Predict the structure.
Amino acid sequence: MLLMFIINIENAREVGANFVAIAKDLYPEQITPQTLSILQQRINTNILLLARR
């Protein structure tokens, strides 16, 4: 059960990373690297918080 939860967390992180890649492709130079970094950090933080539950 724990292993499945960890796998789901990793999948969620991949989704976040994919979001950053898609945003860069769809909106070049409209979304700054700093903005994407902030979004990725928030996604990662939320995932870690979920993992603690």
